[in-house]
Amino acid sequence: MDKWWQQSTFYEIYMPSFKDGNGDGMGDFKGITSKLDYLQDLGIDGLWLTPFYPSPKVDNGYDISDYYSIGPEYGTLADFELFIQEAHKRELKVIADLVLNHTSTEHPWFQESKSSKNHSKRDWYIWRDQPNNWESFFGGSAWEYDQATEQYYYHAFAKEQVDLNWSNPEVKAAMFDVMKFWLEKGVDGFRLDVINFLKVNGQFINNPYDDEKQEQIHLYDKDQEGILPMIEEIAAFVHQFPNKFLVGEVGSEDLTILKKYSGLDKLDVVFNFNIGSMAEFETKQLYQQLVATEQAYDDAQIPTLFFSSHDMSRHLSRFGGDTDHAKLVAAFMLTAKGVPFIYYGDEIGMQDWVTDDISKMKDVQGMIAYQLALEAGKSQAEALVMANEKSRDKSRTPMQWNSQANVGFSDGTSTWITIPEAGCNVTVENQQDDSGSMLTFYKELLQLRKRYSCLRQGEYEFLRYDEGVIYFARNDSTERIVVVLNFSDQPKTIEDCFTSDVKMLLSTKRKPVECDDYRTIFAHEALILKEVTNR
Ligand code: GLC
Ligand code: CA
């Protein structure tokens, strides 16, 4: 365990919503730089920034129109360089979100590609005379007809996000140049967007249909032949630069798929959606996924731990809105084995936002769902419900620094959403000096993770589940720590798992002297204990 990222906790920053530094209502690099002290004090080690490149923002920056500069709304290259410098001064690493799979239709490469069938860049994208049945992951056909050249181009996401043809070596070379540019600018690695999509089936075989779920099975448009060698090439290229880190988004809950993408010659880690994206919280399911991951992964593979992101509902809201429960989730994320990724705002318990007005919706996935629902004959009210289900605006509201954060963000074209009324008291300002707050709890957990190496790199000595309680011991040559997480609403007695006297490091329900029967765990308690004997 000698790699920095194996010892790190990451924090995801959704660029438009973290901190506005110039008063135009939109997050930017000046703003993030001004909050580096906050992030350092919180105790994280690395930042993941969502795309900050110039973009028409059809999909909030995941539609890049220039890979070599900074979107003007986020600042200048000089602002970016200063930010990197200031982050590094505080020993915070920075990883950049990079979209290799597709570009914006406004990218000059695509403009050239679509200009004529004979253009030298025609083959940089995927053009066909006839579409097949593949559907976009945002809904509707994945093919868009281009009148001028009378062919269809392929887009796995919105029609403004056009897929590059990774079978063309020029595309690969162009993207390797992009990676080199940012690595030399000082980023410590990349979060690679939808990285298992780079290859599609060369015969364009139609996807099968799942009659029961009434949806297409995406069998031939991702995880295709040739993808793993391509991942290896990307990893080899990036790892030529010392100490650079790659985390891949492989959008699957299937461990057999996730497992293929990480390891020594591949991505350093991938997001474990098998753990992180449960729709409802099921303690036993969480435990089973942990065990399955432990069994599936080899020694060189390390899982990631996350429960929220810019693509999903915040875990506090998703799992029912109970802050005790959210603390248990946090305690799990920061004491279990793996690389944790905290989503901005979760550390103060921010909640989801859901709109009652379709004109306020910003997310393309929500808007496409709305259109498709109307086309299928749904009423506007029904369509809104369906749109809200799909919309990822939920978790993208401005970071609640203080109660004034409620003024609302703008993205230059329309007013950005305001924070939920109920959430107005959920602010950094309110929580920073409150010993019982969510923020204080995150800081305590992060301090423990920093202080005790076994929490970062220890193996599970055991990992158990019993009636709503997950508990485990982690140890390394220096110490042994036992973590007990009672997700149930009943006090529970756990099996004896201490080999000597223990000291309480943290509890959400008791003070150190109050009760030292550590075998009886209070309802909803998170309890972290350390063995007293020195190893
Ligand atoms: C990833 C991003 C998501 C985006 C999609 C298409 O899943 O996380 O936000 O919409 O890729 O680029
Ligand atoms: Ca701004």
UniProtKB/TrEMBL annotation:
Span of domain Glycosyl hydrolase family 13 catalytic: 12-396
Keyword Hydrolase part of the UniProt annotation: yes
Known EC number: 3.2.1.-
InterPro entries: GH (IPR017853), GH13_cat_dom (IPR006047), Glyco_hydro_b (IPR013780), O16G_dom_2 (IPR045857)
MF (Gene Ontology): hydrolase activity, acting on glycosyl bonds
Pfam families per record: Alpha-amylase
Major enzyme class: hydrolase
Keywords assigned by UniProt, alphabetized: Glycosidase, Hydrolase
Signal peptide start-end: none
Keyword Hydrolase: yes
Name of the protein this chain belongs to: Alpha-glucosidase
Lineage: Bacteria, Bacillati, Bacillota, Bacilli, Bacillales
